[in-house]
Amino acid sequence: MSPSEQSVPTPPAKAVPSLPVDADRQAFFEPWQAKAFALTVSLNQAGLFAWNEWTEVFAAALATTDAPMAGAWTEASARAYYLCWLEALERLIARHGMADAATLKTVAEAWKRAAEATPHGAPIRYEAHLPESGGPGRP
Amino acid sequence: MSHDHDHDHGAGSHLDDMTARVMALETVLAEKGLIDPAALDAIIDTYETKVGPRNGARVVARAWIDPAFAEWLARDGTAAIGSMGYTGRQGEHLHAVFNTDEVHHLVVCTLCSCYPWSVLGLPPVWYKSHAYRARAVSDPRGILAEFGLHLPKSTKLRVWDSTSEMRYLVVPRRPEGAEGWDMEALVPLVTRNSMIGTELALSPAALKAPPP
Predict the structure, then answer these.
(1) Which of A26, A107, A117 is the closest to B125 by Cβ?
(2) What is the mean pLDDT of residues B48-76?
(3) Is the dihedral of CA B168, B172, B173, B174 positive or negative?
(4) Among the partner residues A70, A79, A104, nearest to B130 by beta-carbon distance
(5) Partners of A4 in beta bridges
(6) Residue A125 has pLDDT above 50, yes or no
(7) Which of A15, A82, A85, B52 is 20 to 30 A from B205 in CA distance terms?
């Protein structure tokens, strides 16, 4: 737990961008980012994985994709950051047998079809992707 | 992952990939009873609006006026902060580091964005940026300069790297001019950034100044 002093070796020189010190008002740029965050917190609170396991997987995901986040914190870097978050979450969910990748992909595609079948302005209903004969009135 | 973009955008709505993936997670996990969709909004609301740096500011203000509490906070941050009702959601330990004339503390998470949510809310976006994560260790004085903080050369800088098990709260020095103030009066002087170490606590004069 000893702190690193200022004399820590400097990493290889590269262009160092300025910090987005003013852009600190916005936690999430898009709703899916907030939802991914909340899903992670919720599963952790329910005891489905430990937080240190989460940070391990998330840090590994971040380590592979620093490039889009090298500059100032923007909508694009937030997207890259939460995309790592989402990938880490999916990985952890698969690892613990909560849902496999194939199922998640199928359901995600179903949501997209449901959205496309829904007129603008109307709430998207997941069931909307089902075939006509799949409704509750089926004989 | 395949991207089918051959559909007609005419009447329907388009879901981007990320939104669809998150909705899929929510659907599948809710069907299995592993999450409660209604609870997700509460979590977002809690961390976006309810849990904020004010919790940490109360810890700091109390440490300023209560030497016994300050001593406890220095010795066992988790217990002292927990006694005020702020408990880490992830079971992490909280360690308070006190700024003095000789040493200034700065907190970072070099690997991701570990942060003491229970006392500071969600991290500011700059805390999550690659620039901050990389440079807080290699160039802390440069980082502080970008926040407008220029410390005397004689002040030693210590950088604390947060982990999933250990989070840090900087206790900034009590500003001059606030002698005799009670805890509630002191709380607004304690900014979020001062508890990460990128700023000092506000002076009473700065507090009275109109916001920029």
Answers:
(1) A26
(2) 91
(3) negative
(4) A70
(5) B159
(6) yes
(7) B52
B18:A11 CB<8 A? no
Residues B22 and A35: their CA atoms lie apart, in Å, by 7
pLDDT of A18 reads 47
Q: Round to the nearest angstrom and report the end-to-end CA distance of chain B.
A: 47
User: Can you tell me the distance from the alpha carbon of B56 to that of A76, in angstroms, rounded to the nearest whole number?
Assistant: 30
Could you tell me if the ipTM is greater than 0.90? no
| More confident site: B194 or A126 | B194
Cβ pair A111:B15 closer than 8 A: yes
pTM: 0.65
For the stretch B50-77, what's the b/e string if a residue is b when 16 or more beta carbons lie within 10 angstroms of its beta carbon? ebebbbbbbbbbbbbbeeebbebbeebb
CB contact under 8 A, A27 and B92: no
CATH 3.90.330.10, chain B: domain bounds: 52-208
Q: Which CATH architecture has domain B52-208?
A: Alpha-Beta Complex (3.90)
